[in-house]
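Thought: the user wants the 3D structure for the chain below. I'll pass the sequence to the structure tool as-is, report back what it returns, then summarize two notable features.
Action: structure_tool
Action Input:
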Amino acid sequence: MKKTGPIHLIVILLVVGLATYFLWDSIVYYSKSRQERTEYVETHPNLFKRVINLGLDLQGGMRLVLEIDRSDLSEDAQKDVLDRAFTIIQNRVDPVFDSINTS
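Observation:
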């Protein structure tokens, strides 16, 4: 088994130190409340050049609105289109939620 020397420890500490240095603005920004963030942005105008932009999954989700153009359809076709669209969306979304709930 190899023994780790002081070089390995120095490299690890250097990487952790550099990561903390470059992420410090993001750590400070995202540790504040929403109101404190707005005040912090006003006092630090170039902040968003240094802060990591969080994706929707880390920000808290998203809202999606789907619409169907039914203007050219008859009354019976409109009802059928809505039923089919609902079934298709349900078949695609339910397995995602089922996999989240079982894991």
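Final Answer: Structure generated. The chain is about 65% helix and 0% strand. Helices lie at 6-30, 34-43, 56-59, 75-102.
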